[in-house]
Amino acid sequence: MLIDEKKIKIKSGDGGEGLISFDNRGKAYGGDGGKGASVVIVGNINVYDLSKFDSNHTYKADNGDRGDTYCKHGKDGAPLRLNVPLVTKVYDMAGKEVVSIEEDKQEFPILTGGEGGLGNFTLRGEGWDGKLSRKRATKGEDLDIRLELNLKTEAILLGYPNAGKSSIINALTRARYKVASYEFTTLEPQMAVMDGYIKLMDLPGLIEGTSEGKGVGTRFLKHTKYSQLLIHCISLENEDLVERYKSMREEFKRISTTLYDMEEIVVLTKSDIFSPEQAKDKEEEFRKATGQPTILLSTYLEDSLDMLREEIKSRLDSQKK
């Protein structure tokens, strides 16, 4: 199950206290305390969702160590690094965006650790009165945050249930997602990588009435924000391909202008259930009625898969230029 949202508590480390100590001649030789550790949010391309985070746990960074004798400085706390997937948006509890982590290895220090206190060796030249009150260590910070994952993919596959989207992802990649021969809708986004670098995603739950909250509604639409290409899949099993296409386009318009305006490849799937001549006739009728160029596809025919693969690459390359 994809976990794409979590609320967590974080706390940076407290500074270590400075040491008040004297040698046998009465000279100050207490060392300074170490700095408390910061909390850092880090983008990690190898993390896929937010499931590892526990909302009941407080993620605490290390405290700084106390100063030691012989003027030794206490050890600083090591930063607490929280690895998150791309793209993760971090919000405070008032709903204000703190940061958006969009790149691998991107770092954002979200909390700073407390400062270490000063030992009496450091204080000796400042008219120190023998009391600790002036230069005490400071506490770390704490914060409640909400993490929200927006999956970052190059292309998304959309279409009504049983349009063959999962089968296409399986065929273009080495994924093994569940498929069904009836009107089965995926309940969460499915992602896989084509040719080692192009991420594809099957967006779940789009049915007639999605804009009105039917099915799983629009919960997963946030995962379309960073996509560049829409692969609109329509099964040749449908009696009226044109109506099926137009009704889905209307659904796109109602739920997301980003989705509606995205560059589109129309794929007529399951061409193998008809003879090549019948499938071609259906494709021609569809093209004439909609003016949309299409790809006729069967996941059992390598030539048609190669055609789709190359079209995806070509469209993405054109966008870069």
Q: Could you characterize what this model shows?
A:
The protein has helices at 120-123, 165-172, 241-255, 257-261, 276-290, 302-320; strands at residues 5-11, 39-43, 58-60, 80-84, 88-92, 97-101, 107-111, 142-149, 155-158, 190-194, 198-202, 229-235, 263-269, 294-296. The strands form 3 sheets. It has a 6-stranded mixed beta sheet with strand order 10-11-9-12-13-14, with helices on both faces. The protein is 21% helix and 23% strand. The longest helix is centred in the C-terminal third of the chain and has 19 residues, at 302-320. Strand 13, helix 5 (276-290) and strand 14 form a beta-alpha-beta unit. The protein has 6 helices and 14 strands. With 321 residues, the protein is of the alpha/beta class. The protein has 2 domains: 1-150, Spo0b-associated Gtp-binding Protein, Chain: A; 155-320, 3-Layer(aba) Sandwich (Rossmann fold).
Brief account:
By secondary structure, the protein is of the alpha/beta class.
Strand adjacency order, main sheet:
10-11-9-12-13-14
Strand fraction: 15-25%
Instruction: State the helicity in percent bands.
Output: 10-25%
Overall form: rod-shaped
Number of helices: 6
Please tell me the overall pLDDT: 87
CATH architecture of the largest domain: 3-Layer(aba) Sandwich
Number-wise, the strands total 14
Instruction: From the alpha carbons, calculate the radius of gyration and give it in angstroms.
Output: 29 Å
Structural class: alpha/beta
The count of domains is 2
The major sheet is characterized as: 6 strands, mixed
- Distance between the first and last residues' Cα: 37 Å
CATH homologous superfamily of the largest domain - what is it? P-loop containing nucleotide triphosphate hydrolases
Q: Stretches where pLDDT falls below 50 for ≥5 residues?
A: 179-186
Order of helices and strands: EEEEEEEHEEHEEEHHEHEH
Q: Regarding CATH, which class of the largest domain?
A: Alpha Beta
Per the CATH scheme, the topology name of the largest domain is Rossmann fold
